[in-house]
Design goal:
Elements: E1 17-27, E2 32-41, E3 46-52, H1 53-66, H2 87-105, H3 108-111, H4 114-119, H5 124-130
Antiparallel strand pairs: 1-2, 2-3
Length: about 140
């Protein structure tokens, strides 16, 4: 779970850039899915967070509500007739999600929004994932 962004946070920690670098398939007893590695850079550090498509979609909905006049690159839709768990679909989706994220990060007021800052803040799952022991 991510720690919520607080406006009191140091401006040096605000994300300057974020890109979706890779993805990984996760298996658990009831489902399988891909998580996307987002590399975030601020003035003082570079770190990675791992997010599912569903989390990115929730962020998209929040940003559309908060910034209805902004036009971002299209958010990739859920694949209805294609299996979203196959690698070629995940590769294409990674590229589409990255293009969307780049368009979001290009707008300073969106980049500094509490919604995006909270989304890009690392949580315990991200630390565990980076250590190679993710249990999702």
């Amino acid at each position: 779970m991510q720690e919520k962004y607080d406006k009191q946070d140091d401006a040096a920690l605000l994300p300057k850039s974020a890109r979706i670098e890779s993805f990984e398939k996760v298996y658990n007893p009831t489902e399988k899915f891909y998580t996307y590695k987002i590399v975030v850079e601020s003035d003082t550090q570079t770190y990675a967070v791992w997010r599912r498509y569903s989390a990115l979609h929730r962020l998209h909905i929040q940003l559309r509500r908060q910034f209805p006049a902004m036009h971002f690159n299209p958010f990739p839709g859920k694949r209805i007739f294609q299996r979203s768990q196959i690698r070629p679909v995940a590769t294409k989706r990674k590229d589409e999600l990255d293009a969307y994220l780049q368009s979001v990060m290009a707008v300073p007021q969106v980049r500094a929004s509490p919604q995006l800052c909270t989304f890009l803040r690392p949580g315990m799952d991200d630390i565990v994932h980076e250590e190679g022991h993710r249990t999702t």
